Amino acid sequence: MEITQFSMEEILDPTNIIEGKRYEFILDVDIDEEDELYHEAGIEIRVLIAEKGEESFILNYFIIEKAEGEYLDFALEDEELEEILTFCKEEIAKA
User: Fold this and answer.
1) How do residues 34-66 score in pLDDT, each as one tens digit?
2) Which InterPro entries match (predicted)?
3) pLDDT number for residue 88
4) What totals of helices (H) and strands (E) does the chain contain, helices first?
């Protein structure tokens, strides 16, 4: 899995109920044709990241088939989640 494009947006909490910061990432990913996640039109992963103090973690993620906009019922492997979290943390640090 390789991240080819992304967008990032901070999710603001006007009520101040949520501690820390929240970010939404939309990641376009390139998937190997042999992978069960592969779709000809491509997939994107919507990731919600929480940042509390010095700690960042994935709150939730959704895998979306781009042609139909369908949510796919797959779980990412631990190393894929770690790769995504590392990428997102680096982009947050740059912002």
Assistant:
1) 888 888 889 999 999 999 988 999 999 999 999
2) DUF6509
3) 97
4) 1, 5
* Burial (CB count within 10 angstroms: exposed 0-12, middle 13-18, buried 19+), residue 84: buried
In the structure encoding, which two tokens stand for residue 78, read together?
């631990």
d(CA 2, CA 60): 19
Asked if residues 50 and 72 have their Cβ atoms less than 8 Å apart, the reply is: no
Count Cβ neighbours within 10 Å for each residue of 32-54 and write b for 16 or more, e otherwise: eeeeebebeeebbbebbbbbeee
Read off the pTM.
0.91
SS3 label, residue 10: strand
Report the C-alpha gap between 73 and 89 in whole angstroms: 25
